[in-house]
Write a structure and sequence with these properties.
The chain has 109 residues and is mainly alpha-helical. The two termini are 16 Å apart. The longest helix has 28 residues. It has one domain. Keywords: Cell membrane, Membrane, Transmembrane, Transmembrane helix.
Length: 109
Protein backbone atom coordinates (compact mmCIF):
# COMPACT_ATOMS: atom_id res chain seq x y z
CA UNK A 1 0.00 0.00 0.00
CA UNK A 2 1.41 3.38 -0.92
CA UNK A 3 2.29 5.91 1.74
CA UNK A 4 -0.41 8.32 0.58
CA UNK A 5 -3.09 5.62 0.71
CA UNK A 6 -1.93 4.56 4.17
CA UNK A 7 -2.09 8.10 5.56
CA UNK A 8 -5.48 8.66 3.90
CA UNK A 9 -6.82 5.46 5.42
CA UNK A 10 -5.53 6.52 8.84
CA UNK A 11 -7.25 9.90 8.38
CA UNK A 12 -10.60 8.26 7.53
CA UNK A 13 -10.20 5.86 10.44
CA UNK A 14 -9.62 8.75 12.83
CA UNK A 15 -12.63 10.67 11.53
CA UNK A 16 -14.83 7.62 12.00
CA UNK A 17 -13.62 7.12 15.57
CA UNK A 18 -13.92 10.76 16.57
CA UNK A 19 -17.41 11.10 15.07
CA UNK A 20 -18.44 7.84 16.74
CA UNK A 21 -17.41 9.23 20.10
CA UNK A 22 -18.57 12.81 19.53
CA UNK A 23 -22.18 11.94 18.70
CA UNK A 24 -22.86 10.10 22.00
CA UNK A 25 -21.07 12.97 23.76
CA UNK A 26 -23.59 15.39 22.24
CA UNK A 27 -26.42 13.24 23.55
CA UNK A 28 -24.96 12.74 27.04
CA UNK A 29 -23.41 16.14 27.71
CA UNK A 30 -25.27 18.56 25.46
CA UNK A 31 -28.78 17.14 25.82
CA UNK A 32 -29.16 16.40 22.10
CA UNK A 33 -31.38 13.68 20.64
CA UNK A 34 -30.85 10.06 21.61
CA UNK A 35 -31.05 9.33 17.87
CA UNK A 36 -27.48 10.58 17.55
CA UNK A 37 -26.49 7.18 18.91
CA UNK A 38 -27.53 5.54 15.63
CA UNK A 39 -24.98 7.28 13.39
CA UNK A 40 -22.51 7.04 16.28
CA UNK A 41 -22.81 3.25 16.26
CA UNK A 42 -22.35 3.11 12.49
CA UNK A 43 -19.37 5.42 12.73
CA UNK A 44 -17.67 3.24 15.35
CA UNK A 45 -18.41 0.13 13.26
CA UNK A 46 -16.80 1.88 10.28
CA UNK A 47 -13.80 2.72 12.49
CA UNK A 48 -13.28 -0.95 13.38
CA UNK A 49 -13.71 -2.04 9.76
CA UNK A 50 -11.26 0.61 8.53
CA UNK A 51 -8.63 -0.62 10.99
CA UNK A 52 -8.83 -4.06 9.37
CA UNK A 53 -7.86 -2.61 5.97
CA UNK A 54 -4.33 -1.67 7.03
CA UNK A 55 -1.73 -4.02 5.56
CA UNK A 56 0.64 -4.44 8.49
CA UNK A 57 0.71 -6.06 11.93
CA UNK A 58 -2.15 -4.90 14.13
CA UNK A 59 0.06 -3.64 16.96
CA UNK A 60 2.05 -1.50 14.54
CA UNK A 61 -1.17 -0.15 13.01
CA UNK A 62 -2.57 0.81 16.42
CA UNK A 63 0.66 2.50 17.43
CA UNK A 64 0.97 4.47 14.20
CA UNK A 65 -2.75 5.26 14.10
CA UNK A 66 -2.41 7.04 17.44
CA UNK A 67 -0.23 9.71 15.83
CA UNK A 68 -2.78 10.40 13.14
CA UNK A 69 -5.61 10.38 15.69
CA UNK A 70 -3.88 13.14 17.68
CA UNK A 71 -3.61 15.33 14.58
CA UNK A 72 -7.16 14.71 13.40
CA UNK A 73 -8.47 15.44 16.91
CA UNK A 74 -6.73 18.82 16.83
CA UNK A 75 -8.29 19.52 13.41
CA UNK A 76 -11.68 18.49 14.83
CA UNK A 77 -11.16 20.90 17.72
CA UNK A 78 -10.69 23.69 15.20
CA UNK A 79 -13.28 22.83 12.55
CA UNK A 80 -16.10 21.40 14.68
CA UNK A 81 -15.61 23.04 18.07
CA UNK A 82 -14.33 26.34 16.67
CA UNK A 83 -11.30 26.40 18.98
CA UNK A 84 -8.14 27.49 17.22
CA UNK A 85 -5.16 25.23 17.97
CA UNK A 86 -2.22 26.72 19.80
CA UNK A 87 1.35 26.52 18.60
CA UNK A 88 1.84 23.71 21.12
CA UNK A 89 -1.14 21.80 19.69
CA UNK A 90 0.35 22.06 16.21
CA UNK A 91 3.85 21.12 17.39
CA UNK A 92 2.51 18.12 19.29
CA UNK A 93 0.52 17.02 16.24
CA UNK A 94 3.59 17.32 14.03
CA UNK A 95 5.64 15.21 16.45
CA UNK A 96 2.85 12.61 16.60
CA UNK A 97 2.75 12.47 12.79
CA UNK A 98 6.52 12.08 12.67
CA UNK A 99 6.21 9.15 15.06
CA UNK A 100 3.53 7.60 12.84
CA UNK A 101 5.73 7.97 9.76
CA UNK A 102 8.69 6.32 11.50
CA UNK A 103 6.55 3.41 12.69
CA UNK A 104 4.78 2.81 9.39
CA UNK A 105 7.40 3.61 6.79
CA UNK A 106 10.70 2.53 8.33
CA UNK A 107 12.54 -0.06 6.24
CA UNK A 108 11.86 -3.62 7.35
CA UNK A 109 13.22 -6.98 6.28
Amino acid sequence: MSELKTVGLFFLTALAEIAGCYLPYLWLREGRSVWLLVPGIFSLAAFVWLLTLHPTAVGRVYAAYGGVYVSVAILWLWTVNGIRPTTWDILGSAIALLGMAIIMFAPRQ
